[in-house]
Amino acid sequence: MIFNYPNGKKYSPNTNKEPAKKARVQKNAAYSNRGMTLEEDLNETNSYYVDRGIAVIHKKPTPVQIVNVDYPRRSAAVIKEAYFKQASTTDYNGVYKGRYIDFEAKETKFSTSFPLKNFHEHQIVHMKAVLEQGGICFVILRFSSEEEIYMLEASHLLTFWKRMKNGGRKSITKEEVFEFGHQIPLGLHPRIDYIKVIDYLYKLS
Questions:
Q1: Which residues are marked as site: Transition state stabilizer (predicted)?
Q2: Is 121 annotated as a binding residue?
Q3: Where are the domains of the chain?
Q4: Is the distance from CB of 21 to CB of 180 less than 8 angstroms?
Q5: I want to staple 181 with a disulfide (CB 3.0 to 4.6 A). Which of 47, 143, 152, 173 is the partner?
Q6: Is residue 176 marked as binding?
Q7: Residue 123 labeled ligand binder
Q8: Domain 38-61+88-202 falls in which CATH fold?
Q9: 199: which residues sit within 8 A by CB, 6+ positions away?
């Protein structure tokens, strides 16, 4: 199926999403299903939070406009072409202990850095606005080759983005992610327990 952005440009999924403080990850025996994507792991984690009344956080739906549908038979319809109605902001949002939560999730096959090109200007603008309103905003980064996951607060991401805009490097080094981010050990239930990091950073526990 073909997806297009509002400006008509064809959408091409970025599977090369990317970049660590607090202790290098050890291979976690609990992470048995190594074929899971970051999105699947986070969706499972969020379901765990909702089911246990811990937090209400969901993946944001992406509004699309269908422009071409094929009907191979009466009982079936196949969408052949569609357009994103608007540029997406971040992947997830919700509420935890009365605080608004908003975050983006990215993964990369690179092992030494995280390219900033995986973010878009409108996402950076959105995260900055969330912070200005007192929301909790961050990104979750996964290094798929090493099965490492980190939470990086949006305030740090904005600093690295500004550095790039001022002519600096176009990526975040892994050492910087390690220094400013917070490693999240992979578990079974929940898979990616980022709430623990939120509790630590914002003293919500």
A1: 106
A2: no
A3: 38-61+88-202
A4: yes
A5: 152
A6: no
A7: yes
A8: Trna Endonuclease; Chain: A, domain 1 (3.40.1350)
A9: 205
